[in-house]
Amino acid sequence: MPAPTPPTSFILPDLVSHCKFPLIYHPEGDAIAQQSVTWLDSNCPDLNPKQRRALRGLQAGELTAYCYNYTTPERLRVVSDFMNYLFHLDNISDGMMTRETDVLSDVVMNALWFSDKYMPTTGPGKEQPEDELNPGKLARDFWARCITNAGPGCQARFKETLELFFEAVNIQAHARDDGVIPDLESYIDVRRDTSGEMQAVLGFDRVYALDIDLPDFVVEHPIIEALNQSTNDLVTWSNDIFSYNVEQSRGDTHNMIVILMKYHGHDLQSAVDYVGDLCAQTIDAFIEHRNKLPSWGDEIDEMVERYVTGLQDWIVGSLHWSFMTHRYFGLRGAEVKKNRVVKLLPRAA
After folding, report:
1. Whole-angstrom distance, CA of residue 258 vs CA of residue 13
2. Which fold has domain 9-343?
3. What does the UniProt keyword field contain (predicted)?
């Protein structure tokens, strides 16, 4: 029997229609987005022309304008800089080996702990160069502007979640070093931690943009944790769908769709449909948990309501932005959003 013909395209699940949350854009969003991308572009002298075009086409500032549509222009600018920086970290860490990710982590966390000046560490195995590396300089820049009006609890949670992100990046680097494709359960565990970057965004940027500092007993409540997890899972797993085509073209296997095809007998379309169903379930779970929010009194309840509405903005904003950015579908995002057909890119040599 001849081998089945490899697929040349697949159909996206209709997550945009499944998500009924209102889509709102910040009135200063375009201007702030332009300022923010210029900030990163002008402070990264080593980027080549192709990388600079990709940076402009990413439209990370537009993502923040959807997800933080209620904040002041000043705070939106800090959040947009952080978002551009997160994508920059993701890009430069993507092909790194384990030792390199250790260095990157040390440089960034140094900037957060010693925000007023560069203080290189000298411990065995943790020696840092005399001149600060560029990722550290960028982190120090946005962090110095941020901590002037971010609460202590907000700052502490940000550092903690970013450290979790780097730990997960290290696990990914080990897998790349060893050429390992993890099983589904391991992948979900690690993916949730790599989205420590997303948890940092949701936990830190949300309260910073809202100018609130939620008490620990609220942040750690099971319903709030479940709402955070649903948001994180939706953004993470939908990203596996939207990014699959580009990733398969370059041989990247760190994607739930790849794992479903390798270990669970799925073909491409059924794997995409499976992940799409998971995403729809997370949206439904978010709504269910939101309806179960307890009360902590009028003052805290008002902050919680704004916080949870912000999580909702992240869900709907990220879905629509995925077709706006050039990162996944190039210049064909509007067309793909309409017909949901993705033509597979050829594998790079």
Report:
1. 17
2. Farnesyl Diphosphate Synthase (1.10.600)
3. Lyase, Magnesium, Metal-binding
